[in-house]
Structure formats: C-alpha cells, structure tokens
Design brief:
Length: 538
C-alpha cells in the first residue's frame, strides 16, 4: 500500500505525532523549574534557549527514529545503549510494542535545518517529547552527545510512580565551526591495544570529535600488518621505546577499529611516516634504507636519523603496496604520509619523494596529508598540510590552495607536560597547563593564514613517555576536552571562566568511564572522587 519512502516517512511521522498526542493527554506531572542554559555542556552549543521545565526520562519513554534515512536507527540504538550504561534504564528503539509509551525521543531526519553544515542538529526538549532534528546521521550522533550530557546522575523519585530523570527543557541549535576536529595517538613509540584505542575513541566521541589520526609507524615500531611485506610486523612490530614487546594490529583488528570509530561517526586517518622516521621499516627490510648504515632495532627516543632511499624504485613499489593495502581498509578520504623531521634526507631528494608519493596516494583514491615540511615540495592543492612547527610552510601550502590542520606543538601537543612536576610527557615545545590549552585562538594562531584555509584542529598525543590507558588519559584529559570546544564552538563564545566551570562538572562522566584525568588544581572539580592513581611503573 505504501510504496514510496516519502509515504512511509509520512505515515511514520503521523504515528509518532499520535503517540505524542496520547502522551500529552497523560501529562499530570508538575515538573520542577530547570535551566537548560546552566547545563555544563561541552562543547558549548551555538544557541541554547531554556524554557525552564523538563522532560521526564523514565521507563515509559521510547526512542523513535527516521527509518528511511540510513544511520538514524543506529544512532537511536547507540543512545539507548548509553542510557542503559548511564542510568540502567531500558528503552525500546522503534518498537511497535503496544505498551503505554508516555514520552518519546524522536531522532528525525530533515533537510530543512536551515544550514548546510552536515553535523548540525537541533534539539527541542519538551515535557513529553524530545525532538532531535538532523540532516545526517552524523549530525544526529553529535546531537545525542548533547542529550547524554543533559541526563542527570540521579533520578527524581517523587514526581511520578516510577523514577524519572529530568532533562531540562528548551531548544538547542548547534553546529561545528571546524570541519576537522581530531586527536592523534602515536601507537608506534609505544603500542596501545585495540581495547585501549577503543576507550580513547569513546571519550573523543562524547565530546563530538570526528577524526582520529593513528601514527602507525616510526623508528621504534611498525604497527599495521601489510600482507605483501610481512616482516614489517614480524620484525618491525616487535619493538618499542624502552625495549618492551611492542605489538601490531592485524588487518582484521585495524578494520575493527575503523568500524568502531565509524559507528561513532569518527574517521580514522592512517599515517605511515616517511621518508624519515622509518627505521623500523628499514630494519625489517634493509633494502629500503637510505642512510647508508646497517639498520638495527631502535628503542630510544631520538629523531631524524632515518630515511628511505628516495631514489630506489623498490622503495616506491613498497610504498605503493603499503598505501594500497591500508587504503583498502580505510574509508577516510585522507592518507597521512608524515614527512616530518627527515633530517638525513637531502632537500631535493625529500622534494622528489613527496611529489612521487603524492601521486601514489592519489592513485589509490586518497587525499594526501603531511606534516608542514611537505610544503617544500610542489604539492597538489588537494593535499592537506598539518602545522606543527613551521608556520611559514603552513602559509606556503595555504597560498598554494591547500587546507591546513592546526596542531601547533606549543598549544596542542598532548604529550607536553602540564608543568615541571608532571609525571609524564615532554616539554621541548612548552609546558601546557589546562588554561593555556584553552586560552588561545586557533583561527588567529598563524598570522596571515586565511580562515577559509583552515580545515580544522587536531591534538596529537605522542607516546615516547606513555604506554597504557592510564598514562594516555593523564596527558589527554582534561586538555582534549578543551580542544573539543575550540574546534566546535564559535570563537566569540570561548570563555575560560565559563569553560572551567563546565569542565569541573565533567567528573561524573570521567569517573564513570574510569578516566585517569590529570586533576589540575586550576579546576574546582565537582565531587572530586578521582584521586590520581600512582601508576606502578612497568
Ligand atoms: N616531534 C616529532 C614526533 C614526536 C614529537 C614529541 C612531530 C610531527 C616531537 N614529529 O611532532 O615524532 O617525537 O613531542
């Protein structure tokens, strides 16, 4: 009877409205006053309008989603899972059970949001309905992170015959300023397990990140199985800084991580760092080596001593195999070739290398990304340069039409110590206390860099000094939470006094997720249950 999607969609919406009408009739709850504008949301939404009542999340709530737009039902299921984890409440998703539903959360696909930003969403929270409008499933996913942050830790047990969690009512209109909002994990200096990486991805998703850059190879280790060059992991995967066992991701495990991130609308950007930072590859296959020495396992932390032989055809055949195999597992449009600190590669050899590898990356359907040094070469405007230490090269790339990812080391490097007493991290770029990580303007950081050249912001976490989740979290949190706001919220709404209050209120989530965040004394942490665990040294 109902053939077209539109008809199905209309029917579905009618059913939902009927349910809401039924729910409206039932309302007898006299909700207490609330203030949506006071909710400690991070990233701060663009517009919040409080209506000072509440939605009563309870056992008679159900989640409905658009079903004719792909990905929306999965977002509803994800929300139900997180509500279960958080307050142990079971909610149906798109169920046609005839139990008495009194309130609904409707995750709705619409093309009439009034903005083209694919991650935009609008939340309308009323007494008996929450309507989340989004153009894409990614936008809906960002919106449910806001909804998650609005669910209180404790229920109100006096308003109705069953516990009710009061979500402050009102309207939220929101969208990100930066298209690319990323964090990087260096899994080469120290290897991190699939479970440790997944936990980091979970935390990034909660704060609306949409990119996870994995630094998969370096002098001390090669971390991704390449079937056509098996020694890369059989040999190169068995070492790490400090002489530990290292490790690597099989292609199945890498695909599992990519899928896990994709469920959270986060894309994984793979990096194979070259021509420098390549000792582990050259130790695995000496034929690749270009520094004239006999390569051996390296477990120290020096940089700049290694290079591929940039004039050997075999090296480019190798790179073609590596890029081909990884590109086949990686839905992201980006492939990161590194390009940093190639101190023993002659400049003209480096330029020759970057230009050749760019062609290989494009051949495999990807856009090349590289650290800012790649701007020495004639790179394609589609190639992205990642600023870390050379603003002049970022400007050069931008003038050439390339987009820039902002990762200035002195502002965004998560492996920088908070201060001289910090347990982990380095300080070659700067000490970065929590307020310094927040109090700067990414868009104005590089004088002369046009706003339209900025693709976004990324916070890299190098792992010379860390090797497990607790140490990772000590460095990454809470600073990564601030970068989430800098990358999402309009700059005229960045405000340290407001942010630090909202940050202080993140402790219920951070404690629930067992995050070993650094309890900076700059923050008046709410119910500071977390005591920084002295981590037994391995
Ligand atoms: N610079 C190196 C990293 C790492 C880092 C530690 C880049 C692009 C210093 N390259 O940052 O490999 O060693 O803070």
């Amino acid at each position: 009877m109902f053939k077209s999607d539109a008809a199905k969609g209309l029917l579905f919406f009618t059913v939902v409205l009927f349910l809401v009408a039924c729910a409206e009739r039932k309302k007898k709850v006299n909700y207490p006053k609330t203030d949506l504008a006071e909710a400690p949301l991070i990233p701060r939404p663009v517009k919040v309008i409080a209506t000072n009542s509440a939605f009563g999340l309870d056992a008679k709530t159900a989640i409905y989603t658009s079903q004719t737009s792909n990905g929306f039902e999965e977002v509803g299921v994800f929300l139900a899972q997180k509500i279960k984890n958080h307050i142990d409440l079971d909610l149906y998703v798109n169920s046609n059970e005839n139990e008495t539903i009194e309130r609904i959360i409707f995750i709705n696909q619409t093309d009439t949001l009034g903005t083209d930003n694919p991650e935009a969403y609008q939340l309308y929270i009323k007494n008996d309905s929450i309507l989340l409008n989004a153009k894409t499933a990614a936008g809906a996913f960002r919106g449910i992170q806001t909804l998650r942050q609005l669910i209180p830790e404790t229920s109100n047990d006096t308003l109705a015959e069953r516990p009710m969690w009061l979500i402050p009512s009102g309207k939220i209109v929101d969208e990100p300023i930066f298209e690319y909002r990323g964090a990087m994990l260096d899994v080469a200096r120290h290897f991190f397990t699939v479970a440790e990486v997944k936990k980091f991805i979970d935390l990034l998703a909660y704060y609306k990140y949409n990119a996870f850059h994995m630094h998969l190879s370096d002098d001390q280790g090669w971390r991704i199985e390449i079937k056509s060059w098996p020694k890369l992991t059989e040999v190169g995967g068995q070492t790490e800084v400090g002489g530990g066992p290292g490790g690597f991701y099989t292609q199945e495990e890498f695909k599992e991580l990519v899928g896990y991130a994709a469920e959270r609308h986060i894309e994984v950007i793979p990096e194979i760092d070259m021509p420098g930072h390549t000792n582990a590859a050259s130790f695995s296959y000496p034929i690749l080596n270009g520094n004239g020495k006999k390569p051996s396992a390296y477990t120290g932390t020096h940089v700049g001593f290694s290079t591929f032989d940039t004039r050997k055809d075999t090296v480019y055949a190798f790179i073609d195999d590596v890029v081909r195999e990884i590109a086949a597992m990686s839905p992201s449009p980006y492939f990161h070739i590194g390009g940093d600190e190639s101190h023993v590669t002659k400049k003209n050899d480096y330029i020759h290398f970057v230009e050749k590898v760019e062609k290989i990356v494009k051949k495999h359907g990807k856009r090349m990304v590289g650290w800012n040094e790649i701007a020495q070469a004639k790179i394609d405007p589609s190639t992205v340069a990642q600023l870390w230490n050379e603003p002049h090269n970022a400007l050069k790339a931008a003038k050439n039409g390339s987009k820039i990812i902002l990762s200035p080391a002195a502002k965004t490097y998560l492996d920088m110590q908070y201060d001289s007493l910090s347990e982990y991290g380095l300080h070659w770029a700067a000490y970065i206390p929590v307020d310094s990580a927040y109090n700067w303007s990414p868009a104005a950081h590089v004088e002369g860099l046009p706003k339209e050249s900025i693709l976004g912001l990324e916070a890299p976490l190098w792992s010379e000094t860390i090797s497990n989740s607790a140490e990772l979290e000590y460095l990454a949190f809470p600073r990564a939470i601030g970068y989430a706001e800098l990358a999402w919220t309009p700059e005229n709404q960045h405000d340290w006094e407001s942010y630090k209050e909202r940050l202080a209120q993140q402790t219920p989530y951070l404690d629930r997720m067992d995050v070993n965040y650094y309890p900076s004394k700059l923050i008046d942490w709410k119910e500071h249950k977390h005591t920084y665990k002295e981590i037994e040294r391995d």
